[in-house]
Amino acid sequence: MRILVLGAGGYLGGHVTERLRALPGTRVLVGGRSPAADVTLDLASDRPNVLAGALARARPDAVVNCAGATGGDAVTLAEVNARGPAALCAALRETAPTARLVHLGSAAEYGPGTPGLRVTEKEACLPAGPYGATKLAGTVAVTASGLDAVVLRVGNPVGAGAPPTGLPGRVAALLAEAEDEAAGAFASGGGAGPWAGPGAGTGDGPDGRSGGGPGGSPGGDPDGSPGGGPGAGPELRLGDLSAYRDFVDVRDVARAVELAVTASAALPPVLNVGGGQAVPVRELVRGLADAAGFRGRIVEADGSGSERSAQVSWQCSDIGAARLALGWRPSFSLDASLEALWAARAVRVAAP
Q: Is the distance from CB of 306 to CB of 207 less than 8 angstroms?
């Protein structure tokens, strides 16, 4: 089986590629702009006929599209998330109409959820911003293509290699910064114990955007206790952490892709791939701090959360359809995901 993976250099794409390469009797081809790619193409700018030529040379039995933009202006998001899937579908119809297409969508396509409820694939989509809107446009292009295609609508992925553009990766970077500062303070004979928190002005909202700033008003610990003043010990200053998100281990996402690629029967057009539970964002932050051994205070700066966090306070996916169609369900707990995220960072630091 020949599988072409687009976006293999990204966070999800890297895990998906590693998983698919372990399949017996499978050859995985990497497609992208890099000169090292097996198949050179650019979904954001190549015309469908150019993409068709690249696909003709690759001769894939399946294509997995992990390419996507999570940040940037609306034009960038539209080029990658909306135009890219549409051009890919046009090229597949011309060159490889029988190849299965597995496209990674996003739970952000749904928009604000109703507290206490899980959203199913039949729910109307009302994305709250350009990212969700452009991902939804890509999903529509895939589901209307007439191809043997499925969109896996992924929740908030967590695990090794999480980028700093998302909350888990951003918090891990702040904790690493705190660890480095603590090590420097300890070496010089100063500091307040084995950790020293990052300075004021480093913050993060639940969707990974920066929050807080110099002079920001202190919030409180996740348990509601008041924020500490000068000399109160190490602090991790973040934005508003009151939102709920559906976190899913990146390894579980990769396994869902494998099952979708290898399924013998036709699949539903859209399948939710999430943890199936709404978890308070501050619980994720506290769990990652515990995995890192951070014993300081977590302070939320009032009014510093992102606009999206205010608009989408609840997100939770019903994953029953994926269980029925793929036999898939999450295997990793959130704690296991956070431990893997921090352990992978420690390995990178220790590498020569």
A: yes
Cα separation values, 12 from 103, 132, 148, 303, Å: 12, 17, 22, 31
Q: Which distant-in-sequence residues (6+ apart) come within 8 Å of 310 by Cβ?
A: 240
Instruction: Mark the ranges of the chain whose per-residue pLDDT is less than 70.
Output: 182-233, 302-310, 346-352
Distances (CA, A) of 111 to 23, 54, 125, 146, 313: 35, 35, 6, 26, 10
Between CA 345 and CA 292 the distance in angstroms is 10
What is the model's pLDDT at position 180?
Answer: 74
CB-based contact 106:154 (threshold 8 Å): yes
pTM of the complete model: 0.85
Distance of alpha carbon 289 from alpha carbon 285, whole angstroms: 6
Supply the pLDDT for residue 296: 86
Closest by CA position to 237, among listed 198, 272, 209, 268: 198
Question: How far is residue 298 from each of residues 185, 205, 230, 288, measured CA to CA in Å?
Answer: 20, 13, 14, 11
The DSSP letter of residue 109 is G
Structure tokens at 110: 């749904």
Helix axes 281-292, 167-187, angle to 10 degrees: 40
Burial grade of 120 (CB within 10 A; 0-12, 13-18, 19 or more): middle
Sequence-ordered list of residues with C-beta below 8 angstroms from that of 351, at least 6 positions apart, any chain: none
Residues 25-40 pLDDT 10s: 999 999 999 889 999 9
Residues paired with 146 in a beta bridge: none
Query: Which residue in this structure is represented by tokens 């996916």?
Result: 317
Q: Which of 26, 29, 32, 43 is nearest to 7 (CA)?
A: 32
**Measured between alpha carbons, how far is 140 from 133 in angstroms, rounded to an integer?**
11
Distance CA 102, CA 270 (A): 10
Distance CA 142, CA 217 (A): 46
Q: What is the Cα–Cα distance from 301 to 238, expressed in whole angstroms?
A: 6
Q: Which two tokens stand for residue 313?
A: 């306070």
Rg (CA), the chain: 21
CA torsion through residues 220, 225, 228, 232, sign: negative
